[in-house]
């Protein structure tokens, strides 16, 4: 187990957040084991609102997730880049978001998924393993997550899932805006 919050500063990096929040932030090097262990500790500290589910199946997509939990309650965390900065988008995982329309609705220009390097540099997570905790960037959140008592999220470890009260995600993040993901989900195309 890694030491409590053993994060080492690496470099000063420019920060461009929402609402004109700009400046310099200290970037931290966090290893996968550190991040996963932080999530495990967090779940233990909030045991009445979060827990870790261990499973033999590696979760790499919704099909594999469906063998472990109800995917209609799965949350995906995306990292996006815009003219206004880098943000997290926490949404129900069951549909594909229409990014351009979502960006317009949120008032974000040129919204697109961040490159793997940007995701790693800004959050410490690798693409495909981003969970909703310890992001270090402002977040936009899908209102459709809130009615559930528990939702299922990534932990950076494909064999462990975080079941968490969505309100706890709100409390642990800098949520700068809300959206209804149902308005921005791609419709299935007719044959």
UniProtKB/TrEMBL annotation:
> Signal sequence: where?
none
Q: Where is the YbaK/aminoacyl-tRNA synthetase-associated domain?
A: 59-167
Supply the CDD domains for this chain. YbaK_like
Q: Which InterPro entries match?
A: YbaK/aa-tRNA-synt-asso_dom_sf, YbaK/aa-tRNA-synth-assoc-dom
| Stretch list, region Disordered | 1-20
Q: Which GO terms describe its molecular function?
A: aminoacyl-tRNA deacylase activity
Q: What name has this protein been given in UniProt? A: YbaK/aminoacyl-tRNA synthetase-associated domain-containing protein
**Organism the protein comes from:** Bifidobacterium ramosum
């Amino acid at each position: 187990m890694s030491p409590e919050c053993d994060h080492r500063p690496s470099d000063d990096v420019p920060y461009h957040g929402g609402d004109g929040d700009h400046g310099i932030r200290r970037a931290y090097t966090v290893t996968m084991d550190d991040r996963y262990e932080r999530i495990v500790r967090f779940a233990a500290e909030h045991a009445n609102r979060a827990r870790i589910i261990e499973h033999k199946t590696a979760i790499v997509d919704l099909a594999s997730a469906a063998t472990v939990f109800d995917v209609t309650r799965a949350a995906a965390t995306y990292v996006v880049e815009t003219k206004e900065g880098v943000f997290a988008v926490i949404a129900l995982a069951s549909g594909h978001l229409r990014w351009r329309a979502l960006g317009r609705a949120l008032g974000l220009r040129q919204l697109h998924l961040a490159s793997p390097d940007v995701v790693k540099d800004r959050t410490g997570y690798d693409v495909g393993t981003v969970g909703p905790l310890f992001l270090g960037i402002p977040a936009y959140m899908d209102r459709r997550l809130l009615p559930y008592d528990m939702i299922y999220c990534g932990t950076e470890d494909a064999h462990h899932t975080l079941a968490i009260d969505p309100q706890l995600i709100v409390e642990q993040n800098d949520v700068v805006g809300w959206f209804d993901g149902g308005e921005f989900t791609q419709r299935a195309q007719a044959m």
